[in-house]
Design brief:
Length: 452
């Protein structure tokens, strides 16, 4: 069994995600994102090198905040074009045995009755290796193209998400009893109808009177991932999340988020170890410090600063095309990603930063923590980061695909194992059991899914 830290690979089903401009590198293979062999190869690479999970981000609209047009994002390959990550899982699962898959799906533009079946199906097909990264969406372009004139208000989206999860929990956990499926050939009974129950849900957003369409899967409820950082998002994560993806430019900022979520989770009656925390990091490594620094310089030369601003502007709902790189960015009420906006504007009582300080710092690449060095150096930096940030693992950003994962596996993972931070997973477990070795396949008793 793996001893300690969570290793997750972080990507998107697009030509680029947060690795702005790197698709231009001759070594980068992310342009193959429409090739199923590309995804199968990536999944096998991660599993062979003891990663716990492949975390795939998603969005439902074009990036069009920059000068009010998607032209710049399309031209520069900023999160565009983009395909559906949920449809990739079956092929990857068929070629792996242990790797988990964390897939982003929005509660704002789905129906719980339909999505519950999709995740149950994937949990069956993966033998319990599926996680749902619950989001409420943040792009105005998604709202326009999915039946709304504008986005539902930020906090109201979380209210909808709250009811959405209540419905899915009822379907996954309360609708079918454990022994409902009999498969009794002699009696001619496949399912005992007395053990399949309608959920009779009627709420503000959803009416779902009947039973779940699918029989229970190994985990019943997929592992719940979440990344809320606004006050409403923190509340939601503290209530529902089993793994929280926290973002921050420094360890102290990440630690504040972790502390806030843990404190709120305790108020909901959840145990101290009920939630694991991971943060996005970029790693550039090689056999020697000198080689790693050379690779870092090459990546930095290709880094697309404007692309980073195009993406950030769409995520936060702010057009940055006319904003000076060296002027502080003032807080403004937005209906998009408020916690991400505060990464630059600063929390209450915290200093604001300029766009250049965040997206083109003297050291680092963009808005996630960057570690550069030999395998031993990076392993030491990661160990210090985990301790100082009070996090349980990393979401390793795909900077070059698949090279960044290959380099990490070759140079860093052996050093992490030598330090006792990683073991060698030998058992085939559900994703939840892999992340919570002392628990079972289904959510813990203090999770809200178990309260129905």
């Amino acid at each position: 069994m793996r001893n300690n830290i969570i290793l997750s690979g972080f990507t998107m089903a697009a030509v680029s995600h947060i690795n702005y401009g790197m698709w231009r590198d001759p070594q980068d293979q992310s342009h193959r994102y429409t090739d199923i062999e590309y995804w199968v190869g990536l999944a096998k690479l991660l599993e062979e090198n003891d990663f716990d999970c492949l975390f795939i981000a998603d969005a439902l609209g074009l990036i069009d905040s920059w000068q009010g047009s998607p032209a710049a994002s399309l031209k520069q390959g900023i999160q565009s074009p983009l395909i559906d990550p949920l449809l990739l899982v079956s092929a990857m699962a068929a070629q792996t045995k242990r790797l988990g898959f964390g897939i982003t799906v929005s509660t704002t533009y789905e129906q719980p009755y339909l999505l519950a079946r999709k995740f149950t199906t994937l949990d069956h097909l993966t033998n319990g290796r599926i996680a749902w990264n619950v989001v409420t969406s943040q792009l105005e372009s998604a709202a326009r193209n999915l039946g709304l004139e504008k986005q539902i208000d930020h906090d109201e989206r979380y209210e909808r998400a709250q009811e959405f999860l209540e419905v899915t929990y009822k379907l996954w956990e309360g609708s079918w009893e454990d022994d409902a499926v009999r498969r009794d050939r002699e009696a001619g009974v496949y399912t005992d109808p007395a053990k399949v129950h309608p959920i009779r849900h009627q709420g503000r957003w959803f009416t779902v009177p009947d039973a779940h369409l699918s029989e229970p899967s190994p985990q019943r409820t997929p592992v719940i991932f979440q990344a809320g950082g606004s006050p409403r998002g923190i509340d939601f994560a503290a209530r529902h999340a089993e793994v929280v993806f926290v973002a921050g430019l420094d360890a102290s900022g990440v630690r504040r988020q972790v502390t806030a979520i843990k404190s709120r989770a305790a108020e909901f009656g959840r145990s101290p170890g009920a939630i694991k925390f991971i943060s996005a990091v970029t790693v550039i490594t090689a056999e020697t410090e000198r080689e790693a620094q050379q690779r870092y310089s090459e990546r930095r030369a290709r880094y697309d600063l404007q692309g980073a601003l195009i993406h950030y502007g769409a995520s936060t709902g702010v057009d940055l095309s006319g904003h000076s790189l060296d002027a502080p960015l003032a807080w403004q009420q937005t209906n998009s990603n408020r916690s991400l906006l505060k990464m630059v504007t600063g929390e209450d009582g915290q200093p604001s930063r300029t766009l250049r300080e965040v997206f083109h710092p003297e050291q680092g690449l963009g808005r996630q923590k960057t570690f550069v060095g030999s395998g031993a150096s990076v392993a030491g930096q990661l160990a210090q980061w985990l301790q100082e940030s009070d996090t349980d693992g990393i979401n390793l950003a795909q900077w070059l695909s698949p090279g960044c994962f290959e380099d990490f596996a070759r140079w860093v993972i052996p050093e992490l194992k030598q330090r006792g931070l990683l073991g060698n997973p030998t058992e085939t477990l559900t994703l939840r059991q892999r992340l919570f070795p002392d628990g079972g396949a289904e959510p813990a008793a203090d999770h809200p899914s178990q309260q129905n």
